[in-house]
Amino acid sequence: MTNIKIERLTFGYDQLGTLLFNDAKLTISADWKLGLVGRNGRGKTTLLNLLSGKIPYQGQIIHQLEMNYFPKQINDPNQLTYYALSENEELEIWKIERELTLLQCDLNVLWRPYSTLSGGEQTKVLLALLFLDDYSFPLIDEPTNHLDMKGRQQVAAYLQKKKQGYILVSHDRTFLNQTVDHILAIEKSQLILYQGNFTTYEEQKAQRDAYEQAQNSKLKKEIIRLQKTAKEKAEWSFSREKDKTNKPKGFIDTEYRRVSPGAIGADAARMMKRSKAIVQRVEGQITEKEKLLKNIETADALKMSYEPTYHRRILYVEELSLSYSGRNLFKGKSFELLLNECLAITGKNGSGKTSLIDALLGEFSGEIEGTIHRADGLKISRVRQNYEGNQGTLEDFAEKEGLDYSQFLNNLRKLGMERHVFANCIQNMSMGQWKKVELAKSLSQPAHLYIWDEPLNYLDVFNQKQILELLQQVKPTMILIEHDAYFVKEVSDKIISL
Length: 498
Fold this sequence. Notes:
Elements: E1 3-11, E2 21-29, E3 33-38, H1 44-51, E4 58-62, E5 67-70, H2 81-86, H3 93-102, H4 119-130, E6 137-141, H5 149-161, E7 166-169, H6 173-179, E8 182-187, E9 190-195, H7 198-246, H8 261-292, E10 313-324, E11 327-338, E12 342-346, H9 353-360, E13 367-374, E14 380-383, H10 394-401, H11 405-414, H12 431-444, E15 449-453, H13 461-474, E16 478-481, H14 485-491, E17 494-497
Helix pairs in contact: 3-4, 5-6, 7-8, 11-12
């Protein structure tokens, strides 16, 4: 059995000013199918790069493995896919065709320019390349980003059949449950290992957090008691010092003895010394107790500005067909959306899900047949898939969108955006931060109907849980496009498959 051993790993980026990993220690078996989870920005991709030896660090990472990273960078995407994958080495075509067949991918993709492949096809091609042999150790970084629900199921089945171990980064709990047997969680610069799939991890983490919260509560009470003791001793010491200076010469004590100022001073000095020693000892105990306090990973509850309308039926669609440039997207769809219902739209990539939303909003530029009835006076808030048009400072963006600026910032903070990012222009933010801006905008908009197109893209499991709990609590009227099967099952009242 080959192991990956991490000893006293310390690493951080100068610009962040904090350590991602601090004296971390861990041993991983290369036979494990290990899921790597953690909040965005905690260092998941960084850890993969550290394991690959791509960036310098303090400590030791010991293994005899050849690390193989997904997604591979394609230098010339205009080449035919086979040649774009081959680069400096000739690939045995039967091997890559074998893997593509297992991934249920059309073999003709090899003879099309790589740039013309869909996101899902590119994902499958790069996974096939990753598993051409079983000599290297795969590091798989978010393979589900461009996969629809069916594609995720196909890739999960593919990984299930692999006998070799790997490390997999994903935010899709269903996908992780199907593909891993261990979870490594990055929590506040710590690496914490759990045996089992994602559901087991959630259960064990909840138990661990509950225990640590109870311990924290006890420690905080003990710290308050010790602080009170230290304060009382310090005040007593101060009062004895004051007595020393305020007593008149040759005063008579309670036993009617004449006491000299020198005796008073010596007595006070002894008492003060002993009192200060007690204070120092108590303060030392406080410091030790504070070190035991655990910084538990939590996420604040979100809020949204949902306004129920007096209309019972929000939408009614009858025999709707959409086509674009002569190509049928779908035909003859009928459905209705009632107040406080969540309607999920599912289907493979390219089936017309976003086009259906455009049609419902009167923004579809293709051919429409059928009827769409929409309640009068609806206020609609939309989360889009593409939001490159969001630009400028957060304050300017909030003003342009008519948002309450403090509410908008509060939603961003709850979604985990660091305060220092608030000073950045939106166009300079990461994809995950772009998504949070788009979501925080929608949460801050008073609306009767929310239309969210793939809201979970680029969000970590903590954010996904926040959104899930919010929708379950508020029950807004909503139309949802999402490829995460668990999320769709938990929030939707109706499903339309295209």
